[in-house]
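Pilot study result, target chain (658 residues):
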Amino acid sequence: MFMLSPLQLASCAARSPPRPLSKRAGGRLFCAGKRGRQASRMLRSSFQAVQSPAIPTDSPTESTPLDKFPKSKVQSRQNVLPVTETFKKQYADYSTGYASVPGLTYERSEWITDIEGQIPKELEGTLLRNGPAMYVRGEGAERFEKSYLDGDGMVTSVAIKDGKAYFRNKFVRTEDFDKEEKLGKYTEPSIFTAKDPRKPAFFWRLFNDILAGNLKRKQNGAYNVLNWGGNLVAVDYKKPYELDPDTLDTIGHAASPLSSVMHTSHYRTVDEPDGSGRRCVAFLNEVDWRSETTKAVFYEFDEAGNEVSRRAYDYPASYVHDLVVTDNYYILFDCPIKIDFPAVFTKYIFQKSCLSELICEDTDRRPLFRMFPRRGDSREVITIEADYWCYAYHHVNGFENSDGKIFFDTCTWDKFTLYFTDICSPNGQENFPRMKLSRFVIDVDSRKATHHCLSDLPCELPITSWDYTGKPYRHMYLSSSVGTNEAGVNGPMQALTKVTLPTIDALGDAREQEWIPGESKFAMEPFFVARKGAIDEDDGWVVALVHDANYAKSDFGGRGTEMVIIDAKKFEEGPVARIRLPVYIPFGVHGSWSTTYVAGCPKTAELEAIKARDSGRSHVAALIIDNAALSSVLPRVEVTKIAVAAVIVCAILTVFQF
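Predicted structure:
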């Protein structure tokens, strides 16, 4: 997930077709932190882009009607319900997964003992999840509630080894988090919340934000978490935060190459065709609305965590969210958007809308595929217009075939909701899941991109095997909606669905296998874990967290969370293991599976720190003598002094030992 400021995107309102640009792209050098490495670990190459204009079409930009697409065959959509069924209970249960948690007192680390079924012995690694978890501060008149996506990030881990599971959850201690935690209130403006903690908000928004162009927003470290090359980082939309791989404690910026450069929460891992290993590809899409340009920077990190490639390109200002990487290209999907200028002055400055609500869809143009060279000296950025009007945020995969055509698979939306209103705050009326699974075939020679709908099943948050990223593949796993009515209203995102294509270049006839976790349970983003030594693409497990809206043993208003492990080859049979987490975890945004076992049970250093902390607290507690007994031999004022001194010493010890 990555936010581009609406004012930075203002140039998109009346953009003409792409044109040649010559602005030189730059970048900052590596700065080592306390866990820093040599500056030589980073490599930079900056490119000026030569634009290859799109060939415009005269055909209308309206979306293809839904009844023209192949119908999903999953069981939950075969019984179309009457229009009176609005899925009210399902949406009410679903919404409980967005409840804010208290804060630092909510952090835990412990072995998980409530397990149904058996964790496969050969499964080893760590499920990592990140997402906003605390979005309420203050009480009574001082209570301030932020939009879900503006909440403070909390990383959750479930470390799996030898059939056992260890749980941790810890907040990402950003600079803004520590400041607001100390003050006990929100002080920083955010992207998705209309209400502004700055006072007076009208003057801040008019003079600072709009007229001065200062659009600095809070970093919440909440949108992804990745372990790569021995570096664990929490990502939002700026420079990531390095985390301790043992404890999840926040280390900060610039502790490794991965946490030293700004990049979004989306990345791809791809194998080099020459057999030299796997790369993690991250990117930054930075818009300068004054020059009407976007600077796209693509970073590649090898398996040791070294930055081995950096390519920067300029192109006309646009909005993109995710990327696809093939052997020869980085590919971005340029969504057709524009700025709602009236809303800037009639809503934004009066706290009636947030920054994200100032961006709206542009029906005057189609989306564009922008293709950037990964290799060689070519500066040409190929721009190809899609033949289908839509939006696409999270992409499945992409690859080049033997004829040079590119297959680009994604989840398409027929309306623009920044950000994800149909998923994050659906109501079964105006907002509900309505995505489709789509495949575009891009012909580079003819400059055409042809759309094919693989399924009308509302689906998002797709994943494939990392072993097949950028390669021909057949299997994908998605979060999907359950249920539909005669008016076309769909139920909330609830199930996990495995989609299998008959051939790698198929344009239809996809097989869908659906697993619904329960009546009041809702699956989150899935991840695929390949079995060691696997030959078949789908030989492995699908793992995911599941929100339980009706957990009998809950101490958080009936809410609970479990992790499920599903044999991908026996998908419809459901989980081989359900692992009940010790606390409720809100719906996250993104995450990953670390094949390296991290954030497991405490190691020696952590155990010694815990022992020292507990010892210090016990020692101070012994100094606090019963007030009634002591008052018989000392004046009352002296008792007060002793008690206060003991409390102060306890506080100091606690601070210095954390």
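One observation from the pilot: The longest strand covers residues 278-288. A full batch analysis is planned for the follow-on phase.
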